[in-house]
């Protein structure tokens, strides 16, 4: 994205004023990040009216190469540049190295100036003497290579001995010395050197086949997506810059002393937290959050808290709390501790009092409407500058239930003139007396009335300090809150966790908003929070999806900052198939049975045949096979029979043969039709006991295990995409986009007898149909199976 024309013209004019050439200035404007940095640096250096070109070039270097961990010292460095105390690139590079090592700590001016050569003047005579010494040492090489000698190397030798020498003088003297030694350039000097051809090594015959060649090694990021995160001991760099309307800048970073205290308290371990609100069921987006929070802690040998953000009692239920804990464990994660925001009410209250004492918070009496109006107009509250003692008393009255709900809030005194609306004196505490907290961690009772104070933003942020979190991992919508986040922690003098925002996980053909999910459930568009059509983790589990395939899916997506992408559902299904193909035993079920009577097999005759649970199973391995009865009455799918045959059809047709999987070839000899002469009621066929027939088509089937007794009857639920559109959340009438055929119930499917031993949650591959799991609604009299995913694998074909 390039700056808009008006802003771009102003920036170009500013860049030209400091001496940048037009080409460099225009290229800079094409890069928003560099442009923003350079404008900030020009203002910090107070050279908006222009400066010498040499100074301007150094300012440009500061804007592009200054170490991020020492931003608080940048204005100091710029004073040295503008005053020409630092006037050559070598001095500036030395300053960068010194400040990068210093970080946010104070430094001694004498040490800084010594490291950067401030005040050191190297005369032209000294430079000429050094150049002569270098030429004497390398005279033979220079005479041999003449003007093809690497000038940069000669320059480097001089710089080692005279680091603060003016590079322009060095270059002029080297050129003069070369001319004096070599004279005028000749035609040979301008010829390009002939490159010697490398001799090819003798090729050794490789007898290995293509199958012996190992696949290419995956990248480090693919093997370990957590490499992007810094270690605890690195948390001394500037996290962000907060620009205030009065021109001051907060460069949020930890001092070395603060960092050392944190490392000592945590023993240098990585501590993270997974902070769900207990106001609904977790969905697949939370699976990504868990993978990042728990996964990072596990990979670094640290710990992750499961911390319930129970600060909104109106929406909380114990059902949700129990569900979250169970799902976290099902996903394979083990919390270090399970805590609640309400566990820290007293500590949070004490920190709020400290915020008031420091002059950084006040009690406000504006209504929500007035607060909104004042924020829009960037006006301070009439109570913003009230005395600290008054705010302390009023806050205590709030805590003790002496002020009505809605009549007072505690607001942080931030910056109402800021360009960031998240700095508009955010509310830290408000009274919430009408709804009790789910847990019994309440404020002290006064006159028999318990009035808890509802915690808003302050709870989320300060808890990170209380829990000694190293990395605060959250989704990108919180990025704009960085300023207020670090403002608060800085105002209280607390340790600053490293914030890292990543993109939300959005999947096609579904909704992820808790409000929309709650509406689907409460208005009964779906059958509860664990409806297999939902992307809730309990719904996916009920559908038959494994936690390991979900984690593999999340890991494959990576921890990116691309917030505009939506992941195709096929990608998740690919990972589901990948696992179930290896773990789900095969079995046979006929969804829409069509009766086939085998006329050349004796009535009542039943053969027990071996069927494979796995494609590569050995028949002599009893654990890898199961028994299927074969009798004179079998059932095939209605869709596997046609009256009219065709060349591209491999099913059964009159006069045509097919192979019954694990059994025998059969040939259709007759068809019994209904009264309408169209509906197929029954098929007559003959089987080939010698198996000499070799048909192309192979069908799954189920047989009667006893004469006149139907096979095991089961209910099968076929689930499809819940919404037609890839992104229904962006539609005004998103409920109108619901797919009415997202759930199809088949009450009378036939299954092989061994499926009767299945337990709830068991997963199978129904051959030729897909992967299925036994549903919790099953009873001994009625087994129910949910389709997890079909056998079709279009995504897999793409990524191979």
Write the layout of secondary structure elements.
Blueprint: H1 5-17, H2 22-29, H3 32-44, H4 53-65, H5 74-82, H6 89-102, H7 109-116, H8 124-137, H9 139-145, H10 151-161, H11 167-182, H12 187-190, H13 220-223, E1 240-243, E2 249-252, H14 256-266, E3 271-274, H15 284-299, E4 303-308, H16 318-330, E5 338-340, H17 345-357, E6 361-364, H18 368-377, H19 388-399, E7 409-412, E8 427-431, E9 453-455, H20 457-466, E10 471-475, H21 482-491, E11 498-502, H22 514-522, H23 537-543, H24 547-557, H25 569-583, E12 586-587, E13 589-590, E14 593-598, E15 607-612, E16 625-630, E17 633-637, E18 657-660, E19 665-673, E20 680-687, E21 698-699, E22 702-703, E23 712-719, E24 743-751, E25 763-766, E26 770-774, E27 783-789, H26 794-799
Parallel strand pairs: 3-4, 4-5, 10-11, 12-25, 14-20, 18-21, 23-27
Antiparallel strand pairs: 1-2, 6-7, 7-8, 8-9, 13-24, 14-17, 15-16, 17-22, 18-19, 19-20, 23-24, 25-26, 26-27
Helix pairs in contact: 1-2, 3-4, 4-5, 8-10, 8-11, 10-11, 15-24, 17-20, 24-25
Region (Disordered): 192-221
Keywords: Aminoacyl-tRNA synthetase, ATP-binding, Ligase, Nucleotide-binding, Protein biosynthesis
Catalytic activity: tRNA(Gln) + L-glutamine + ATP = L-glutaminyl-tRNA(Gln) + AMP + diphosphate
Which features would summarize this protein structure in a list?
27 strands, disordered C terminus, protein biosynthesis, glutamine-tRNA ligase activity, aminoacyl-trna synthetase, Gln-tRNA-synth_Ib_RNA-bd_N, 16% strand, 800 residues, alpha/beta
